[in-house]
Amino acid sequence: MLAYTLRRLWQFVPTLAGVILLVFFLFNWIGGDPAYLLAGKISNPETIANIRRQLGVDEPYAVQLWIFLKQVLSGNFGASWSTNERVSEIFATRLGPSLTVLVPLLMISTLLGMAAAMLVAYLRGSLTDRAVMVACTVGQSISILVYILVFQYVFAYQLGWFPVQGWGVTFADNLLRYSALAIIVGIAVSLAPDIRLYRTFSRSSPTCSCSCRACSRARSSSSVSSAFRASAAK
Question: Can you tell me the distance from the alpha carbon of 129 to that of 229, in angstroms, rounded to the nearest whole number?
Fold first, then answer.
């Protein structure tokens, strides 16, 4: 277990280095010069040069990469160019609402997906199995924007069960009122791919002992093959 953990951590190093390099070069080559955006439409070369010097984008790429690497390792990304707010404070204010939505969404969608997948795997080959797989395929084909618009229109606008936007003060109010609709939308979006994924895992299990027709045929074929090999060996 320790060797596996160390091996995975070692594999994480080149992946992280590749992501850092990709983000850095995409930002510098495709993102454009931020000095022109901050200077505004009415600006002169002196103002743009002063802003570039303050941001440090006039330095060589090697120096900029070293500064960016230190910021990533230390978690100090400086201040936002548009609002002049500390980036760490921006992360801190957004982290709570994000976890309030993501943690219940991950737990509920995983449990529902595994339970539905095991039920479908038990009924593999039946009409229920085919109907659920068709429904999952249709559900995966629908854009997430359609889910968001339909759920907001029906549950928030028409029925008025949830607020369309906003954030409360207490955790219970945020979880049960403001985050509930987002969690429901996330479950509806992720349920179809989760069912297909977990059903595939159960189908590929070599120790399956269920009584469905597909597994029975597979076990019968395996038994016949074993008997044929035994008789051929004699």
Answer: 34
What is the number of residues in the chain? 234
Full DSSP string of 131-193: HHHHHHHHHHHS-HHHHHHHHIIIIIIIS--S-SS---SSHHHIIIIITHHHHHHHHHHHHHH
Q: What is the pTM of this model?
A: 0.61
Computed over every residue of the chain, the mean pLDDT equals 79
- Using only C-alpha atoms, what is the Rg of the chain? 27
Instruction: Give the DSSP letter string of 98-119.
Output: HHHHHHHHHHHHHHHHHHHHHH
pLDDT digits (tens, 9 = 90+) for 27-45: 877 767 777 777 777 677 7
Distance CA 203, CA 205 (A): 6
- Cα separation of 61 and 63, whole Å? 5
pLDDT per position as a tens digit, 113-168: 888 888 888 887 788 888 888 888 888 888 888 988 999 899 988 888 988 888 88
